[in-house]
Amino acid sequence: MKKIILFLCVVLIAFGGIGCSMFKPEEDEMDLTEEDILSANDNRIMGVSSGSVSPVNTLFIYTIDSIQEELVPLQIPVGGSRITPAFIMDEVIRNLDEKVEVTEIDIEKSRIYITFNEDYAPVRKCSKNFETMILDCISNSILDNISYIDEVVFRGEKGAYQSDNFKFEEDEVYSSR
Question: Which of 19, 21, 26, 100 has a CA-to-CA distance to 48 between 20 and 30 Å?
């Protein structure tokens, strides 16, 4: 008799858990206005600032495991900050071992343009593999966290992105959804 009651309790708990998971509330999606996009474009100097995306408690970005030479996800607490491209860039750069300097971020429609200082990584002083990992960290972190951005374009201060390892055409898309 005790076995039957225990079995029924386990079955009820299992069905209760399955039933609860079927009724998840839909997440609020925030439509961006032109003002939101212009606000993100005004964040040209790297820093945490106002922008446009729904608030979350944690953020997943990518960084580099220098020993294994691979990208690894990293969970970042957000607190009261708003998730903007500038905020994500700050977090990615802060968690890299190499000095990377972004001089400008522009957003047009669903495309983000990220301009690097040509005196620092990833444009200078990087192996091809490490440069690729830095670019992947940035583009993956942006695409995974900013819903209104579908394409990432990298630039140098003088126009098209050119390093010892890569030469992109002007406005060539590095990665996209």
Answer: 26
